[in-house]
Amino acid sequence: MRSRSRGSFSFLRWGSLLLFLLAVVVTALQLVRFSRLWINFPSNLSIAGVPIGQLNRQAAAERLLTVYSQPVELYYNDAVIHLDPTAVGFALDNDSMLAAAEQERTRLSFWEAYWNYLWDRPTDPVDIPLRATYSEDRLRAYLQVEIATRYDQPPTPAIPVVGTTNFHAGISGSELDIDRAIPLIETSLFSLTQRSLVLPIKKTAPSHPTFQNLEVLLRQTIDLSGFDGTIGLYVDDLKTGQNISFILDKGSLVTTPPDVAFTASSTIKIPIMISVFRRIGANPDAETTKNLEDMIAKSINTASDWLMENKIDRTKGPLVVTEDMQTMGLANTFLGGYFYAGAPLLEEFHTPANQRTDITTEPDPYSQTTPSEIGQLLQDLYQCANLNGGSLIAAFPGEITQTECQSMINYLIQDRIALLIQAGVPDGTNVAHKHGWVTDIYGVIHDMSDVAIVFTPGGDFVFTFYMYHPVQIVFEPANQLVKDLSQAIYNYYNIPTP
Predict the structure, then answer these.
(1) Within a 13 Å sphere around the CA of 314, how many CA atoms are in the beta-carbon half?
(2) What's the start-to-end Cα distance of the chain, in Å?
(3) How far apart are the C-alpha atoms of 287 and 310, rounded to whole Å?
(4) Region 424-437: what's the mean pLDDT?
(5) pLDDT tens digit string along 311-335?
(6) How does DSSP classify residue 497?
(7) What are the CA-CA distances from residue 174 to residues 129, 133, 148, 153 (Å)?
(8) Cis ω on the peptide bond leading into residue 258 (within 30° of 0)?
(9) Position 425 pLDDT exceeds 70
């Protein structure tokens, strides 16, 4: 019995010793294995979203470089552009990121980490934030030179349609919005997953035709009409101050100064109205108001005479109107007598315009002007009414007010005939104008005119037009010509948006 007990004890002792030795060997092997793992980064560690577990410092740096050196895909409409991060100075700060990773690796002591390893204890994932730099200046230059210069599409400008009074609207262009693109690309450069983006593009509107384009269109329109008399035309942009002014005599451009005189006919009633308002104040009596309406809206000549006799000067009313125009610097605009039949010519006026010997429109010795002077007068009236400025207020301080100028424009708007300039603009367009034509004793028209301030959504303008023919002006073709010119100018200011 004792011998058998000793055998069992010996077996247990040697078994335990064997298990102990086996445990020591396994532990030693695990220690060796862990020691090899310990010199690398732990499996729960990543830098900027890139796993670096079980990698040494050099391998981790190479993996980061591989990932963040991938090009960023940029989409410009249908084009795909690959942006190399190094082209914009993108560089990883590997030293600081790897130092942070090393610090995380050694946060636990060797034996603490080993103990966790033996027991296979889970560890929370740790991600070291990305640290990198790039050059915004280089990115901006890249976008401008490599992308915008190649892929931007300039707009096609609006142009006149040959043979019509219309304009092609033009075609919008596309332009890279560099300021918006920069932060979007920056985000992609610093992102692990968002490595592509659609570039922000803004539309560029077609450029507006120049005033020179408009002048060419107007002259072509006159040429196509076949009119072989004398035409004077003036257009003024009431926002920019640009103007078009030319005289055509038998189709040829008159290039030598001075201006050419035309019969003013009823357009002279605008100077009369201004002279009246200079003297009556902002609240005329009922009789004055009626005569102002009759003079402008109905073009009644007796109303013009009544206003000059009763509100300006009974005997020298026309000459006082002329003096007012001369005060404003209008040397070619005058009224030499009253309108009633048989009225005497109070004074004969010699002006730079009517002293030309190379061109004559046989202007009426009683009333004359030039397209540019009456146009400048309308411009002054507009500035007075809208800006409380201009030559009217400067010439007659304290006598012409903004309210009075607004009233004068309202009187001109009441002249509604649906012909000439008014016929060329859409219904409902405000046209502050005065028209006129003169017939001889046989009922033949030799002079026709229309002068206007036209108010449009795309911009306000002055348009004055005078025409003369020594034989006859046939009304309907002449009316059509003025309508076409008015329509062309209106269309210039109101080109459809593409």
Answers:
(1) 0
(2) 115
(3) 11
(4) 97
(5) 999 999 999 999 999 999 999 999 9
(6) P
(7) 38, 31, 10, 5
(8) yes
(9) yes
- Tokens 């008399």 belong to residue: 229
Collapsing DSSP to helix, strand or coil, 55 comes out as coil
pLDDT, residue 476, reads: 97
| Separation between Cα atoms, residue 365 and residue 472, nearest integer Å | 20
Phi, psi of 405 (to 5 degrees): -65, -40
DSSP structure string for 318-358: HHHHHHHHHHTT-TT-EE-S-SSTT---------TTTT-SS
Query: How far apart are alpha carbons 34 and 39 in whole angstroms?
Result: 9
d(CA 170, CA 161): 11
Written as six digits, the tokens of 55 are 């990698």
Q: Which helix (H) or strand (E) holds 224?
A: helix 211-225
How many residues belong to the chain?
A: 498
pLDDT tens per residue across span 222-242:
999 999 999 999 999 999 999
Residue type at 270 in one-letter notation: I
Residue with tokens 């009644």: 300
- How high is the pLDDT of residue 36? 53
Rounded to 5, what percent of the chain is helix, strand, coil? 45, 20, 35
What element of type H or E holds 277? helix 269-280
Whether domain 211-493 has CATH 3.40.710.10: yes
Q: Domain coordinates of the chain in residue numbers?
A: 12-71+90-132, 136-204, 211-493
The answer on pLDDT for 4 being more than 60 is no
Q: Please say whether the beta carbons of 87 and 189 come within 8 A.
A: no
HSE-CB of 73 using CA atoms within 13 angstroms: 10
Give the pLDDT confidence of 233-277 residue by residue, as tens digits. Answer: 999 999 999 999 999 999 999 998 999 999 999 999 999 999 999
Alpha carbons within 13 angstroms on the beta-carbon side of residue 245 total 19
Please work out, in degrees rounded to the nearest 5, the angle formed at the alpha carbon of residue 56 by the alpha carbons of 51 and 59. Answer: 70
Task: Supply the DSSP symbol for 308.
Answer: I
Could you tell me the pLDDT band of residue 8, with boundaries at 50, 70 and 90?
low
- Greatest CA separation found in the chain? 171
- pLDDT, position 1: 47
User: At residue 414, does pLDDT exceed 50?
Assistant: yes
Strand partners, 452: 433, 463
List, as one string, the DSSP characters of 111-178: HHHHHHHHTT-----EEEPP-EE--HHHHHHHIIIIIIHHH-BPPBPPEE-TTSS-EE--B-EEEE-H
C-beta of residue 232 within 8 angstroms of C-beta of residue 210: no
C-alpha 285/C-alpha 308 separation (Å) is 15
**For residue range 357-401, what is the model confidence (pLDDT) as tens digits?**
999 999 999 999 999 999 999 999 999 999 999 999 999 999 999
- The contacts of residue 137 (CB under 8 Å, 6+ apart) are none
Q: What residues contact residue 347 under an 8 Å CB cut-off, 6+ apart?
A: 319, 322, 336
